[in-house]
Input
Amino acid sequence: MMFFLFILKKKGVYMSFIEKSYEKHSLHNCDNLPDFMVSNKLSPNDSHVRELKNITPLIKQFKEAKWLTVGDGRYGCDAYLLNTLGASSITATDINTYTLEIAKEKGFIKQYSCENVEKMSFIDNEFDFTVCKHTYHHFPRPAIAFYEMLRVSSKGIVFVEPIEESVKLFDRLKYFIKSVLRNDKNYLYEVSGNFVYRLSIREIEKMMTALDYDLIAFKKYNSFFFPGFPSCFKILNKPFFIAGILIQNILCHLKLMSWGTGIIICIKEDKDNSISHNLKHNGYKVIKLTKNPYSN
Output
C-alpha cells in the first residue's frame, strides 16, 4: 500500500512538471514579427530561409500536399515560409495562438489551430507532412510528440533540430571547440525552461524501424550563435559569422567536431523509391530501413 501511494505521489510530481513546462512555453512569445514577414522579402542569408529551403524537393514532388507546422508560435513563420516556397495548404499550430491570430489577421498565414503536440485534435493521416523546426528540443516528452506527429501525417515528418552524434574520437577536444564556437555545453537549458533535447539520427532510425516504416533521410549543417549578440537571423551574412560557420564545417569534415544541426526526414512509405531518389539527388543521405520479416 505504501509503495502504491509513493508511486501516485511521484506521478503527481511528474505530471505537474509536464503541465508547468507547457505553461511556460505558452507564455514565451516573440515580441516582434520576423523581418522577412515585415519586409515581405526573403534573404538567402536568413537562417529560417536557409533551413527550410532544404524542404523544397518534397514541396515540388508533392505539390498538392497538406502541411502541418508544430510549435510555430513565432507568428507562424514556418507556415509562411513553406507557402512562399511553394506549399499550398499549410496549418500552423502552437500551444498558444496569440501570435498566430495576429499573423492571420495580417494575411501572413491562412489557417491555424491551438494544439498540444502530445495530443492533437486532428484525425489520423489528416496531413501529408508535419514540419517540426526547432521545436522538438522544447518538448518535455519528445517521444510522445514524435508518435503523435506520425499519427496525423500520412507521408512523414520533417525535423529541423539540434542533433547529437556519438563520435568518441577526441571527445574532450570536441567539447572544448563546441564551447568556443557555439557557446555549447553537453546539457543545455533555455530561458523558456526546457532542457535542450538533441535529436539522434540513430534514435530516429530505430523508432521508425520499430514501426516498420520505409526510410529516413538527413542533411547536417552548422549555425553560429551566441546569446547576447543581435539576432543571428539579421547578421548571418556578416564576415564574422560566415567565418564561424566555415571553421565549424572544416572541423566537422576532419571529424574534430560534430555537426550542430540537422534536417531529418522520416518517410512512412516509398514503394516506388521516388522519394528516396528525389532526396538523394538533392544532397540527402538516405537510410532504407530494414523491414520486419514477421509483419505480414
Summary: Residues 1-10, 227-235 have pLDDT under 50 and may be disordered. Residues 47 and 233 are 5 Å apart (CA to CA). Residues 21-27+36-167+186-228+259-288 form a domain with the Rossmann fold fold (CATH 3.40.50.150).
